[in-house]
Amino acid sequence: MLALLCTGQGAQHPGMFNLTKDLPEAQPIFEAATPLLGADPRDLVARPDADLHGNRTGQILCCTAALSAFKIVEKSKPSRMIVAGYSIGDLAAWGCAGRLEPAAILRLAAIRAEAMDAASGEGYGLAGIRGLSLGSVTKMAERHGCHLAIRNAPDSAVVGGLRTALDALCIETTAAGAQRAILLPVHTPSHTPLLAPASQSFAQALAQETLRRPPPGAPRLVQGLDGTTVFDPVKGLDKLARQISETIDWAACLQACREFGATSVLELGPGHSLATMARDALPEARVHALEDFRSVEGVVAWVGG
């Protein structure tokens, strides 16, 4: 079984569409993203003055990357797949699973980001902390008025709050023995109660969408919030909205991939962060990020191998 992982924000870069930019099957996706971004995403990421990490731009770009990369996977015709997404990647996963049209995914990415920006205000962000127990990190975060945003592993977490408080938290956790404690290139306290209004707003937008019946062979969709399989789409959409303002359990998503028997894992990008975490969680699986490959043919051969 092939597990597909849709990346969250933070790793956008000028070469993120190198493998997919000329793929005929991906052209409608790039065309759908263009009016939302005000430029073709392939051109936008190449501009030296482009802000690829703005919340709205970043979320649209990440969904464009995952949806276009999935077109390469489809060329391989894998018999069994599972898909999960990290943060904004959770929305992209619904597109890869055939539950929503790609154009709807991109439009919803813009709506999601706008709702988050409206709810968060200035001076907020996220920090990544590795090397301490989740319990210890949670207690320290609470002392600084911050919130646990993502459980990546038993000793790896993302915390959200005011950037000044996160700076202080990084200093404290480093002194306590953390291997890594850094501010992330995100300016929104995603997956914390601070964004409760954004969850409510996004739920209203999702309620207006028409869900598709997944086509034959579509990946099994795993909920990014808690690693459960989406069987009831109404409940699934509720969790998709709630994850904006609730702690997400990425470790549970990786455990779900393992329990469903994933023998290969492919991160759809941009970046390699999810592949790195998957190597630890699924040590017996073959794991790669799309950006490890030099050609579409190489990806197709690896997926089919």
Automatic annotation (TrEMBL):
Q: SMART domains in the record, alphabetically? A: PKS_AT
Q: What InterPro entries is this protein classified in?
A: Ac_transferase_dom_sf, Acyl_transferase_dom, Acyl_Trfase/lysoPLipase, Mal-CoA-ACP_Trans/PKS_FabD, Malonyl_transacylase_ACP-bd
> Residue span of the signal peptide, if any?
none
- Give start and end of each Malonyl-CoA:ACP transacylase (MAT) domain: 5-304
Q: A Pfam family name for this chain?
A: Acyl_transf_1
Q: Which PANTHER family match?
A: BLL0263 PROTEIN, MALONYL-COA-ACYL CARRIER PROTEIN TRANSACYLASE, MITOCHONDRIAL
Q: What is this protein called?
A: ACP S-malonyltransferase
Organism of origin: Methylobacterium brachythecii
